[in-house]
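Service request form, structural biology core

Requester: graduate student, group of Dr. S.
Request type: structure prediction, single chain
Budget code: on file
Notes: please return the result as structure tokens.

Sequence provided:
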Amino acid sequence: MVLVLGADMLNPTTKAKHSRGISIVVKKSLFTLFVYKNGAMIEKYPVALGKNSGDKRKVGDNRTPLGDFTITSIEDSHTWEHDFGDGKGPIPGAYGPWFLRLSTLATETRSGKQWVGIAIHGTHDEASIGTRATEGCIRMHNEDVDSLKRIVDVGTPVRIEK
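Core staff response, request fulfilled:
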């Protein structure tokens, strides 16, 4: 199977916000994040997605939202912890080394609802990559999110699709 995705898939308003020609497309059905430069794919990475399939409907539904977003901040998350509510308590390094926060305004999501806390980030559980394992974020191998961080900037457009 040949998959051809390009920067033209992103809406022109989103593309105009970023001048280096870099864009990201997350293809949920393939558990893959593609990086494009001027419409040509330059990188692809396996990812983990929300535990539940489909588009995000409400906060806490463990779904990864569909839509056109932008990276609003790139944060050092080496020391962050997260309690997944599984009785194990706070997990050090839960987000890996980097947390690339996405804007998820109601005008950007397919559902027309605004979400908070959606990001592309690393992991404490490398075996989860390629599965439905997150609370809605896009989880990557730590070395992959390190690589991605060197390519993208605040303002990079991100499309999440089926």
